[in-house]
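Hello,

Our lab assistant flagged a job as stuck in the queue for most of the afternoon. It eventually completed. Since we weren't sure the result was trustworthy after the delay, we are filing this so someone can double-check. Below is the sequence as submitted and the structure that was eventually returned. Let us know if re-running is recommended.
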Amino acid sequence: MRFTSMQRLLIAAYCAMMLVGLLLLILGLFGESWWLPVIGALIAAGSGFTLSIWLREFRRQDTLKSRA
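-- returned structure --
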């Protein structure tokens, strides 16, 4: 399966957002604030979930193109 440049950019953006969320989660665990790990976990989970949906859609489009 080959990705277009726009799809690669979208995947990279969601991976970067997931890494930022994980960084906030890790930094929050060693800090004194309780909300920083919560925000980090929500960002990481949300971007990971969205990335999985996008990858599934890209795969579905690729399958439909190959059948046509």
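-- support follow-up --
The delay was a queue issue, not a problem with the job. The result is valid. DSSP finds two helices and no strands in the chain. Residues 14-59 form one domain.
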